[in-house]
Amino acid sequence: MKNKTKIKIKIVILISGSGSNLKSILSEQQHPKGCLYDLCDTLLVIGDRVESLPGIEIARSFGVKTSLVLRKNFKTKIAFEEELLAQILPLHPHYIILAGFMSILGKTMLTPFKEKIINIHPADTKLYQGPHGYEWAYKNALSSTKITVHYVDEGIDTGPIIAQHTVALPHIESLSLAQVIALGKEQENKFYPQVISNLFKESKLCVA
User: What is the CATH number of the domain that holds 49?
Assistant: First the structure.
């Protein structure tokens, strides 16, 4: 019986913003000591709004192919997702990674990638769903909050949790909102690649 060998996992990354988590993922992929080095390849980075252009430039600086599929150019979610699939499916990725991707995905996108789409959310998804997680923590003067990495389902930040990380916010009353966001983002950038790495290392993907 032939031994089975792990294969390099293929991913596509979707973004909506400046790409800080994208940059951390690509850095960990390409640095010889990175937690994602020799573990996965990013085949394509897709941005869905004009605000993602800085992230697109980051991807290009790493030599990764990019595409801009503007959500505003499509009348329906289905049409938007069909265009995403038209670009993604021919690449046969194993996973899709959302890195600050703000469009809510539906059945068209989720059906062919069941439990293969991963998102990061700046709050405990059991307590708060939707955008502006750090603003929620700041408004409620929390002494700590969480970063959640989860699978994507049809709800908003309601998919099964993969991992969580606690962000301590001591003396939050003395911090500005910008400081809270910066603190959270810094920890996101370290946590997300590591969670992806752990998940992929446990993957059963292999070839004969």
Answer: 3.40.50.170
